[in-house]
Amino acid sequence: MYYILFLKCVISGFLLAAPIGPVNLICIKSTLSKGRISGLIVGLGAATADALYGYAAAAGLNFLISFINQYETAFRWGGGMFIAYLGWKTFQSVPPSPSIDKETTKNLYKVFAGIFLLTLTNPITIFSFIATFSSLGIAILVTSLPKAALAALGVFLGSLLWWIILTSAISFFRDKVTPKTISYINKLAGALIILIGIASIKIK
Question: How far is C-alpha 178 from the geometric centre of its chain's CA atoms?
């Protein structure tokens, strides 16, 4: 029973992380311009938030769902504006020179916190988990808080697996991409992220 629950949650975390969105675009941009570690930190921030929402969905924390429903507009505007801001920063960013290619620990903490908050402020995340957990029959398998914690761990590892695969694939091409190409990619990714942010504010 436990391994079935764990496996289903790993699959859920992977599937929910995979669709292309602002975090995926930021991860790709960070990996290309700053290296795999920076891209993995982006994924780690998203995976941690996914685990928190996965726990809430598995444990049936109705108060959290009600809170998100009650302040859905604020979440939508806050999250959308934050996404647009990150898109603008991405659009403006330039490829670093080889001498300053490494991220500092302080910068990595900031990246982690920013992506964690970005994922948390997206109310669609919790409802995506509820829908996925229901379709895979995960909800009926969670009968205790330890099982909810196991579900959260499965979601975290599944999500992290996607980010490892993505950053590994992007890193393979990194040495073949010129700084000029990275600059174009930053502008394209930034523009797409800004549009996603605007769309998330308007779409209910």
Answer: 27
